[in-house]
Design brief:
CATH class: Mainly Beta
Number of domains: 1
Number of helices: 1
CATH architecture: Beta Barrel
Distance between the termini: 9 Å
Oligomer: single chain
Length: 113
Protein backbone atom coordinates (compact mmCIF):
# COMPACT_ATOMS: atom_id res chain seq x y z
CA UNK A 1 0.00 0.00 0.00
CA UNK A 2 1.40 3.36 -1.00
CA UNK A 3 -0.30 6.15 1.00
CA UNK A 4 1.29 9.44 2.01
CA UNK A 5 -0.07 12.22 4.20
CA UNK A 6 1.83 15.50 4.49
CA UNK A 7 1.02 18.61 6.46
CA UNK A 8 3.16 21.62 5.82
CA UNK A 9 3.49 24.98 4.14
CA UNK A 10 4.20 25.86 0.55
CA UNK A 11 7.83 26.81 0.01
CA UNK A 12 7.00 28.61 -3.25
CA UNK A 13 3.85 29.52 -5.18
CA UNK A 14 1.93 26.73 -6.90
CA UNK A 15 3.06 26.18 -10.50
CA UNK A 16 0.52 25.16 -13.13
CA UNK A 17 1.73 23.30 -16.24
CA UNK A 18 0.13 21.76 -19.29
CA UNK A 19 1.89 18.60 -20.46
CA UNK A 20 2.41 17.69 -24.14
CA UNK A 21 -0.43 15.16 -23.69
CA UNK A 22 -2.75 18.06 -22.84
CA UNK A 23 -3.04 16.97 -19.20
CA UNK A 24 -2.89 19.77 -16.65
CA UNK A 25 -1.01 19.54 -13.37
CA UNK A 26 -0.14 21.80 -10.48
CA UNK A 27 3.24 21.46 -8.79
CA UNK A 28 4.02 22.35 -5.19
CA UNK A 29 7.03 22.27 -2.90
CA UNK A 30 5.71 21.46 0.59
CA UNK A 31 7.97 22.12 3.57
CA UNK A 32 7.27 19.73 6.43
CA UNK A 33 8.63 20.33 9.92
CA UNK A 34 10.11 17.24 11.49
CA UNK A 35 12.48 16.17 14.17
CA UNK A 36 15.65 18.13 13.65
CA UNK A 37 15.25 20.16 10.48
CA UNK A 38 12.46 20.81 8.01
CA UNK A 39 12.30 18.92 4.70
CA UNK A 40 10.83 20.05 1.40
CA UNK A 41 8.83 17.51 -0.58
CA UNK A 42 7.91 17.93 -4.27
CA UNK A 43 4.20 17.33 -4.94
CA UNK A 44 2.36 17.07 -8.26
CA UNK A 45 -1.44 17.13 -8.59
CA UNK A 46 -2.97 15.97 -11.85
CA UNK A 47 -6.42 17.32 -12.66
CA UNK A 48 -6.27 19.84 -9.84
CA UNK A 49 -9.13 22.34 -9.65
CA UNK A 50 -8.34 25.81 -11.03
CA UNK A 51 -8.22 27.23 -7.49
CA UNK A 52 -5.12 25.11 -6.72
CA UNK A 53 -2.96 27.29 -8.96
CA UNK A 54 -3.71 30.19 -6.61
CA UNK A 55 -2.09 28.60 -3.54
CA UNK A 56 0.75 30.89 -2.48
CA UNK A 57 3.92 30.77 -0.39
CA UNK A 58 3.41 29.85 3.28
CA UNK A 59 -0.12 28.49 2.68
CA UNK A 60 -0.66 25.65 5.16
CA UNK A 61 -1.85 22.52 3.34
CA UNK A 62 -2.59 18.85 3.90
CA UNK A 63 -1.70 16.50 1.04
CA UNK A 64 -2.98 12.94 0.67
CA UNK A 65 -1.45 10.89 -2.13
CA UNK A 66 1.23 8.36 -3.03
CA UNK A 67 5.00 8.32 -3.54
CA UNK A 68 6.33 7.89 -7.06
CA UNK A 69 9.82 7.77 -8.50
CA UNK A 70 10.01 8.66 -12.15
CA UNK A 71 12.90 8.41 -14.58
CA UNK A 72 13.60 10.75 -17.49
CA UNK A 73 16.35 11.82 -19.85
CA UNK A 74 18.16 15.06 -19.01
CA UNK A 75 21.32 16.29 -20.67
CA UNK A 76 21.92 12.94 -22.34
CA UNK A 77 21.76 11.00 -19.08
CA UNK A 78 19.04 9.24 -17.17
CA UNK A 79 17.86 11.15 -14.11
CA UNK A 80 15.21 10.44 -11.51
CA UNK A 81 12.93 12.34 -9.19
CA UNK A 82 10.96 11.14 -6.19
CA UNK A 83 7.74 13.05 -5.59
CA UNK A 84 4.29 12.76 -4.07
CA UNK A 85 1.41 12.41 -6.52
CA UNK A 86 -1.50 14.09 -4.75
CA UNK A 87 -5.03 12.76 -4.75
CA UNK A 88 -6.18 15.76 -2.75
CA UNK A 89 -4.59 18.96 -1.46
CA UNK A 90 -6.58 20.92 1.10
CA UNK A 91 -5.98 24.10 3.06
CA UNK A 92 -5.03 22.91 6.56
CA UNK A 93 -7.70 25.14 8.11
CA UNK A 94 -10.54 23.19 6.48
CA UNK A 95 -10.81 20.78 9.41
CA UNK A 96 -13.89 18.83 8.29
CA UNK A 97 -12.59 18.26 4.76
CA UNK A 98 -9.12 17.31 6.06
CA UNK A 99 -10.65 14.85 8.55
CA UNK A 100 -12.74 13.26 5.78
CA UNK A 101 -9.67 12.90 3.52
CA UNK A 102 -7.67 11.32 6.34
CA UNK A 103 -10.48 8.89 7.13
CA UNK A 104 -10.63 7.89 3.48
CA UNK A 105 -6.86 7.29 3.40
CA UNK A 106 -7.04 5.25 6.62
CA UNK A 107 -9.86 3.15 5.15
CA UNK A 108 -7.68 2.34 2.14
CA UNK A 109 -4.86 1.23 4.42
CA UNK A 110 -7.20 -0.92 6.54
CA UNK A 111 -8.75 -2.51 3.43
CA UNK A 112 -5.36 -3.90 2.40
CA UNK A 113 -4.67 -5.24 5.89
Amino acid sequence: MNVVVLRGRLARPAEERVLPSGDRLVGFEVTVDGPGRAETVPVVWFGAPPSAAGYDVDAQVVVVGRVRRRFFRAGGATASRTEVVAEVVLPAGHAKRVTAALREAAAKVEATG
